[in-house]
Amino acid sequence: MITFKIKRYNPEKQAEPYFEEFQLDVQDDLTLLDCMNEIKWTLDGSLTYRMSCRSAICGSCAVKANGHAILACQRQVRHLVKDDDTIVLEPLGNMKPIKDLAVDFKPFWEKIDKVKPYLQPKQKAPEKERIQSPEQFKFIDDSSTCIMCGACYSDCDVLEVDDNFLGPAALAKAQRFVQDSRDEKTLERVKELSKPGGIWDCTHCAECVERCPKPARPFDRIKEIMTVALEQGVTNNNGARHALSFAKSVKSSGRLNENIIPVESVGFFNFKGLFDLLPVGLRMFFKGKNPPILHKSIDEVEDVKRIYRELNE
Amino acid sequence: MKFALFTGCVAKGATRELMLSTMKSAEGLGIEFIEMKSAACCGAGVVSEKNPILADALNARSIAIAEEQNLDLVTICSTCQGILKKTESHVDSDPAYKEKVNNVLEEGGHQYAGGKIKIQHFANVLGTEEGLKLLRDKVKRPLTGLKTAAFYGCYVLRPSELSLYEDPDNPTGMEEIFEILGATPVYYDSRIKCCGFPIIMMNKDASHDMAGNALIDAIDSGADCVVTGCPLCHLSLDAYQPEIDRMNKKGYSIPILHLPQLVALALGYSPQELGMDKHIISTTRLDTILT
Questions:
Q1: Burial of A21 (0-12, 13-18, 19+ CB in 10 A)
Q2: Does CATH place domain A2-103 in 3.10.20.30?
Q3: Which residue positions in chain A have pLDDT lower than 70?
Q4: Which of A247, A289, A290 lies at the smallest CB-CB distance from B50?
């Protein structure tokens, strides 16, 4: 017997969401979606959620199970059930619930739209298709697998605190066009994606990689855009300056120079940015916690410099 | 037990108390750490933004140095741990890439073999059966009554295929160590979340909000202190706590400890010997609990 603790919400009847328990005597090789259907069809027809293909293709049935977003049709309950034979189901995070497990995807789609998810070639369409080699397709193979389920968006730590962040799904979608050999707006795209709310607001926490039910792995795609942005010379922002300063510091001493990197990241002439660094800098200084002023190199730093040279850096 | 110690940059810079307490823990436990003085910075996943193979070459070189010493590599920073494991995975999974990386290393006299040594965070070493037994035998001052909230540092947990924790969504390694030390682990949702530090230069408000939410979660769950395995999390949660509190207007304050400090406290070292007086948020309130 498995107990499903499901977060119910119907604003027409009750303002606040509440948990309701349903018990099912089911085989544990059923998928979570099979069980949700069983509850809906036999215990409570008002239970609301999205579903369609039941084959991890349509991306409709993402929900939170035991606190993490998953595709309900892709996971057997045996992998979800906790020691006390329960599974807690909640709507996806970072989006407003509409009813029970169904959430409003509007902000999700608005952000997908924002990254212009379509090819922008300069030339007119040829008579036949625009050919891509397998090598060219490799760059966009993984991001093409995204099924827009919203699992990454739901569990993104940055979106939890900042609605302005484009989020992992839209940025993975952006990579699909930034690195598409047929697209000719690469520079414009990475300029746009380097603005606040874009690639440089990602913390690298890889929560999105963990929740992605496909090989899209959004964070890996975000990293790829960062590299393209730097290659394209889009460096007038804190994220790019931080990356360049970091790489430069390791080149010169084999180590990170913590005194220099914050200053170079905000920019030497960004007086407000520099002023903002003062309180924490002084606080650390007075505690004797500031990084040593004389920055020491690692042993064999020449070998590190040689590696940089060999890789044309 | 003898290991090659990959100190990382921050333990030699803004959190020197981490280095100090790591060496005290090792001394108290009879663990020998050979500091890898010629290892380069792991790049923190930032150097790879600039040039992915550059970051992998630097890290493969560091791993090769430990291989040459025939010693397992130990990190004391969740970020270093996660990034070194990434390089290991990139290079091991692609023979052609491995050859390319080794060609870059060749002139410097290093070659990455792969599969020869383990790359582990200090918490993973202490969390083994042997490590826990060692801790159990050496605890001199059980931390009875101290409610400790682990903050893992996300890079040791995700992506999960590179994590050394059995269940990275619900890790228990640090909490098991706390129990052996006599402390009471506090379980709270934010313990596996990101501290926000990586975007502190890009989106300060979001970064502080992330750290603030974690701190509030730990405090509301009854913790006396937060214990982290990552010096970057320490900076985010401790050095910036005054800013975070100004944003939250909650009036909360909670000491943040490095894991080796907690270990060494239980081994009988004094807070001063472990550099706890260097923290921005005073740890003196813990003395009352521990006496």
A1: exposed
A2: yes
A3: none
A4: A247
